[in-house]
Amino acid sequence: MAKNRRPRLPAAQATAIDKSMALDRSRSGTVDLTFRAIDELAHVHDPIWEDVSALAVIGRSIFCTCDETATIERVVLDEAGTNAAGHANFPLGEAFELPDGPSGEMDIEGLAIADGYLWICGSHSLKRDDPEEGGLADMEDIDWDPNRGFLGRVPLIDRGDGVFEPVATIDALDGVPGRRAAMVKMSKSSKTPIRKMLAKDALIGPFVDHPCKENGLDIEGLAVQGDTVLLGLRGPVIGGHAMIVRLEMQETGSGTLKPRKLENGQRYQLQAVDLDGQAIRDLEWRGDRLLILTGATTDLEAMQSVVLIDDYDPGRPVYPAGLLARILDLPVIRGSDHAEGLATIGIGGQDRLLVAYDSPQETRTDAARRRLTTDLFEIAEAAAQSDRPAPAAKKGGKKRKARSRQHA
């Protein structure tokens, strides 16, 4: 019987590529993030250095989150570009009325910086209980944490020397408009505006009420330019394609955020990206390039890579594999180092990729120093050449050629 074989995701190759730019190249350096003690922080009850789930960088400020809290953490990179300390903690409950209170788990999986704002997104996902004393009966419980339905932004104020601070409001000054924190409306119900909207979608709808890590709705990537907000989904993966939800956000007169209607008459547009069955763990959007950190939808150990889309068009419905370039393969370590946070950081006048990991291996953490070691990688600047064969034509149809892209 003939099988429908999925060809491999194309790798970025160059006519003369040195070993430092190999797909499985070693890290070029590390950055140690050092945090304050838990008892010094508001609304934090878990070791941040063990659970960093998202990254965003501006200047020397590295923003990150622990997915067990509803807080944003900031550390500041030193001149050598190897250590980031001076930890400051920003509880979102001080700027927003959160349905589960300032200590309720938000499961923040996405951070992005655009136009003087820090954007924050919760996973919007349901979760299944682990089996404990109740055995299998425990697994029948599927829970909703109301703070997980958060999508909002806070203004960033420039304190100088590359240090930025999130604040609730910035007053207008010298003709420059003021800015304020704003979020999409929330309630204790799991029927948040985004979940409710996607529940009606023909593709996403059947998965909205499935738990995360079981191909249920699970937002893990966030990227923003102007009013355009991209939500990268860890789940569901549909037909081997990862999904991106595009929103065009507007701030209402009452100070809340709301997606505006698009050309299709809806308040969102889906984009399918052929990641060969992998899911989205994070997004990084710089200029016309979109970087996608890929990984598994479920808890299984799987390949994890960084994929580049050059000349990225957020309005394109489908990105076939021939328009993607795999520029980095990260090591797969059983039980640890699951890549979850991706950002671009400037060190020594050169942009590099900064990668943080969930379930970090023991050598990455130091409980006494409250230290987490993240990795730096050079960014490959290579010509992408697809190693995928052209898809077979459907009966009566035409063959499609896998396209290659040049990456400057």
UniProtKB/TrEMBL annotation:
Bias (Basic residues): 395-408
Compositionally skewed regions (Low complexity) per UniProt: 382-394
Residue span, DUF3616 domain: 51-369
Pfam family, one: DUF3616
Positions of the UniProt region annotated as Disordered: 382-408
Protein's UniProt name: DUF3616 domain-containing protein
